[in-house]
Design brief:
The structure is a single chain. The chain has about 325 residues and is an alpha/beta fold. Helix content is about 30%, strand content about 25%. The chain has a six-stranded mixed beta sheet, with no helix packed on it. Strands 7-8-9-10-17-18 form a six-stranded mixed beta sheet, covered by helices on one side. It has a six-stranded parallel beta sheet with strand order 13-12-14-11-15-16, sandwiched between helices. Strand 5, helix 2 and strand 6 form a beta-alpha-beta unit. Helix 2 packs antiparallel against helix 5 and helix 3 packs across helix 4. The longest helix has 16 residues. The radius of gyration is 21 Å and the shape is globular.
């Protein structure tokens, strides 16, 4: 028996919540808006995600499963350990993407595309204005800016502690030869990436090497919420040097950031990739949620597909139109 009642799916006698609290929850990845929301005595998650949850200080369920008897966890390409939930049932095949990115990043491979009848997908950037430059193009832009600004003083790059920070470190390593300084919250995540084969060169700010680096025109990768005028002012005053700040985010495609330069670097799929993902999945029924869910569903319907947007907090069984 199979039923889909967002945000949960029932397979046989087992009900599994998808990145939500419940008795048994699928945790797609270790970002706080998924891992902390999906509180449950039993979770289904990748080994990498569980290790990242521990590294970030999150409470992890006593019962951890890395799969389900008739479901598979497929790569989601979002951050290390991110997975999609895919189930084969007598009523058809079902896939939940969680957050995903189709194309490769500098640290993880791009998402698998499941062949499915019903697709429950995120739509963070599901509107036509979100078309991202290539990863290589953005990396070149970041590296040129960093090298130029480091000649003048300190450089600060901001990104989410999980995912974006590691991408920035990898860009600095591979494109500039720079080993950046990081704080402990990012270093703990870095060590999990290293455990799973992602080579990252960095210096912990509090280490002896890190302290020596701080005497120079150093480059720091910090959590995104630290990149603001006050932080730059405090750094400049502490080290008596000029500070240049930047952030890396997909929202840079459409938004200006008053306190820092912004580079368009996202761990989500842009609008063209979202459309491509749906087409390649062959899904007969599509549910979009989060971000620009309404716009993406409308555009998919215009292409003749059976798509609906899930309203926030909607828990009703979806009634599909033939």
């Amino acid at each position: 028996m199979f039923s889909f009642n967002p945000p949960s799916v029932s397979i046989g006698v087992k009900q599994i919540t998808l990145d939500h609290a419940g008795d048994c929850a699928f945790v797609s990845h270790a970002h706080s808006d998924h891992a902390l929301v999906a509180r449950a005595p039993s979770i289904i998650a990748s080994r990498e995600t569980v290790d990242l949850m521990h590294a970030r200080g999150y409470k992890v369920a006593s019962d951890v499963q890395h799969g389900h008897y008739n479901a598979k966890l497929l790569n989601a390409g979002h951050v290390l350990g991110a997975r999609q939930f895919y189930a084969e049932t007598d009523e058809g095949t079902f896939a939940y993407t969680g957050d995903f990115r189709m194309s490769d990043s500098f640290c993880v491979k791009g998402a698998d595309v499941p062949q499915c009848d019903t697709l429950f997908m995120e739509a963070t950037f599901g509107s036509p204005e979100f078309v991202f430059p290539s990863r290589a193009e953005t990396a070149e832009e970041i590296s040129k800016w960093v090298l130029a600004e480091r000649e003048k003083g300190i450089v600060v790059l901001g990104g989410y502690s999980l995912g974006k920070a590691q991408e920035l470190i990898k860009i600095l390593n591979d494109y500039t030869g720079i080993t950046p300084v990081v704080e402990d919250t990012i270093a703990r995540v870095n060590e999990v990436y290293r455990k799973y084969g992602v080579n990252l060169d960095y210096l912990l700010a509090s280490s002896d090497e890190g302290l020596r680096e701080l005497d120079k025109n150093f480059v720091a990768v910090v959590p995104m919420n630290k990149v603001n005028n006050n932080f730059a002012f405090q750094l400049s005053r502490a080290y008596s040097r000029r500070v240049a700040s930047a952030v890396a985010t997909g929202w840079a495609a459409t938004e200006r950031f008053a306190n820092a330069k912004a580079f368009c670097l996202s761990d989500h799929s842009d609008y063209p990739e979202l459309l491509q993902f749906v087409e390649r999945s062959g899904a007969k029924k599509i549910v979009t949620h989060y971000g620009h869910a309404q716009r993406l569903a409308r555009d998919l319907r215009a292409k003749g597909l059976n798509a609906r947007a899930l309203e926030d907090r909607q828990k009703l069984l979806i009634a599909w139109e033939d």
